Amino acid sequence: MEQLTKHDTILWINHAITYFKSIDKTQKDMAKALGLEESRVSEMKSGSGVISTNLMTKIVEYCGSPRRNPGRYLEVELYNDIENFFNSFESTTANRFYRKLLALIKNEDLYLNFLDLISPHNLNYKTDKSPLCQDSCRLSFS
């Protein structure tokens, strides 16, 4: 088992204290139930005492297990070679490109500036970009 820190001791004893308070019991009752001297409870609350595995087991029996830090689920991907690894990013890269393009098209100022650049200035063009956005959405999620 890994070495417990001062912080671990404080967390464990506070977990037990909180549980006993929730059932209207005192720290004195808790010490008695867990087989501790009352002075040891005060030591552990300040982090100067060390919690034993035996005491941790008793705390779990009486109070339940304390909440753990959130974990992280990772999914492994295996590749036969580096070329396959880089090829796997093609669809992700294309999707990212189309999303950025869609964001640019939806920006009114950029859209109008773009139309000014590519359209003859003597023509009046429509600024209805909904067909263009629909095409971009279709491309980015295909």
- The low-confidence parts are none
Share of helix, binned: 55-70%
Structural class: mainly alpha
Query: Whole-number radius of gyration?
Result: 32 Å
Q: Count of helical segments?
A: 8
The dominant shape is elongated
Give the topology string: H per helix, E per strand.
HHHHHHHH
Structure write-up:
The chain is mainly alpha-helical. It is built from 8 helices and no strands. The longest helix is centred in the N-terminal third of the chain and has 17 residues, at 6-22. The two termini are 50 Å apart. 6% of the residues are buried. The model has no long low-confidence stretch (mean pLDDT 79).
Task: Produce the secondary structure layout.
Elements: H1 6-22, H2 27-34, H3 38-46, H4 53-63, H5 82-87, H6 90-106, H7 108-118, H8 130-140
Helix pairs in contact: 1-3, 1-4, 6-8
List keywords for this structure.
single chain; 142 residues; mainly alpha; 63% helix
Give a short overview.
The chain has 142 residues and is an all-alpha fold. Helices cover 63% and strands 0% of the residues. It is elongated, with a radius of gyration of 32 Å.
